[in-house]
UniProtKB/TrEMBL annotation:
Catalytic-site annotation from UniProt: H468
Keywords, comma-separated and alphabetical: Disulfide bond, FAD, Flavoprotein, NAD, Nucleotide-binding, Oxidoreductase, Redox-active center
Record organism: Cyanobium usitatum str. Tous
Residues that hold FAD according to the record: K61, G127, T157, G158, S159, D332, M338, L339, A340, H341
GO BP term, example: 2-oxoglutarate metabolic process
One cellular component term from this protein's GO annotations in UniProt: oxoglutarate dehydrogenase complex
Binding site for NAD(+): G194, S195, G196, Y197, I198, G199, L200, E201, E217, G287
Name of this chain's protein: Dihydrolipoyl dehydrogenase
SUPFAM superfamilies: FAD/NAD(P)-binding domain, FAD/NAD-linked reductases, dimerisation (C-terminal) domain
Superkingdom in the source lineage: Bacteria
Amino acid sequence: MRFDGSLFDGSSFDYDVIVVGAGYGGFDAAKHAADHGLRVAIVESRDMGGTCVNRGCVPSKALLAASGRVRELADAEHLAGFGIHAAPVRFERQKIADHANQLVATIRSNLTKTLERAGATILRGQGRLAGHQHVTVRESGSGIERTISARDVILATGSEPFVPRGIETDGRTVFTSDEAVNLEWLPRWLAIIGSGYIGLEFADVYTALGCEVTMIEALDRVMPTFDPDIAKLAARTLINGRDIDARAGVLARKVTPGCPVKIELADMATKELVETLEVDAVLVATGRVPTSAVLNLAAVGVETERGFVPVDERMRVLVGGEPVPHLWAVGDVTGKMMLAHTAAAQGTVAVDNILGHSRQIDYRSIPAATFTHPEISSVGLSEADAKALAEQEGFELGLVRSYFKANSKALAELEGEGLMKLLFNKASGEVLGAHIFGLHAADLIQEIANAVARRQSVLQLATEVHTHPTLSEVVEVAYKQAAMAVAG
Ligand SMILES: Cc1cc2nc3c(=O)[nH]c(=O)nc-3n(C[C@H](O)[C@H](O)[C@H](O)COP(=O)(O)OP(=O)(O)OC[C@H]3O[C@@H](n4cnc5c(N)ncnc54)[C@H](O)[C@@H]3O)c2cc1C
Ligand SMILES: NC(=O)c1ccc[n+]([C@@H]2O[C@H](COP(=O)([O-])OP(=O)(O)OC[C@H]3O[C@@H](n4cnc5c(N)ncnc54)[C@H](O)[C@@H]3O)[C@@H](O)[C@H]2O)c1
């Protein structure tokens, strides 16, 4: 079939939509399209549900739930504050791992059935582009190839762990989150390379289960991607308050698996060797890279940016800044906020556009959370970006802080360590962003995300009543302080 961008005869295609990759991005796109009556095929080369369900959010949150209970029950000082004295806590590593594995299996199966019920055709194999509106699928197992066509193709092939040059993994003594989620053993001394989302969440799991952790961060402070004030406060509890030795400004330049594992640490500035560590195991948590190499993007002239597929805010794939007709990409492979709910939201936006309802994604209102104990969350602009926007648009930036130690519910829980920072436009009152560290921060951020999505003003938000006593009053206090700053 000749492609000229004007062809639109659904009946001449095998499907209306082919989705390549069945992670959260692909799943939401396929389900949304099938729910709207489109003929959908979804191609998956590995596990239905992708990273989040099989090797990401789901198993890691199951491990965090179990290890979080262990931490709570083992925290004699915290319990004594309530007058509780518990017996020494015991746990079975294998049963914690089984809890995570069973949850993965249940969610994977539910998700597969949901797609089938919606009427999507699931094709097991590896997909690649075979020109415009065509995908070749190499069937898993048989290796048989066949090319299918669709009016629209959505690429949702996700990402995989990035392992820097010089670091050798063996999956047992030096591993990434792909293996860590299986919790196959508990090293006495674990080094974690990277202090981002994965490094922090697994440091939470492993220290709760009694491991000693050394955290290695190349940039000049730990948790470099988080708001600096929030990171400072969070580090006090999540790092300094635990069995963690954190080193910033050092690069893990060579890691050799074995017993012990050897790590060469170099000074980030001078690149000189500063120390060689010998530990029982290493978790490499140094970011993720897009899975795009096998997609044969050259067939449609698309050039990736460090492997990421360029898209616009309607999720159309771009070549030289111009959209390629009928080609879409969603999720981690686009490199925009690599989160499961971002992937899902992008999937829905792509399909809405396919259905003819023009829609753009609003990244500013997408929240993010790290599920440590306590949690860290954020939405909207960072303080630095908000300052830049204020300068560019000529308004004064407002900033207020609300503390968990002034919140009755947090104090009742003996969890007074926490802070929320709210950023807003001092002239209009519009909420620009928020950053939280504290008990249930991941749930608290949603209220602010909704306000950002609606571009609401703190003047309106400050009048809305919050239940007493709840942690949500931390947000209410921030809104009220901000409203006074706007009005005054
Ligand atoms: C340890 C960990 C914890 C995380 N925790 C959270 C969390 O708590 N909250 C959150 O929001 N995010 C979390 N994330 C991030 C989240 O998992 C990802 O953002 C999300 O999975 C991205 O979804 P996706 O659909 O873009 O890609 P993926 O989930 O990576 O799915 C892509 C799918 O495409 C398949 N595929 C690839 N190439 C092909 C091909 N050529 N043909 C056919 N199929 C192909 C892959 O096998 C895969 O199944 C976590 C990630 C990790 C690693
Ligand atoms: N709760 C969640 O939503 C959640 C949880 C886990 C993962 N994720 C997603 O997965 C992605 C990947 O997470 P991540 O923690 O691997 O990446 P990250 O980008 O958040 O952090 C990686 C850290 O490793 C450091 N680093 C890189 N190379 C290094 C080296 N050689 N030596 C020392 N330090 C080095 C970086 O400076 C950075 O601070 C995240 O961006 C996030 O989108 C989300």
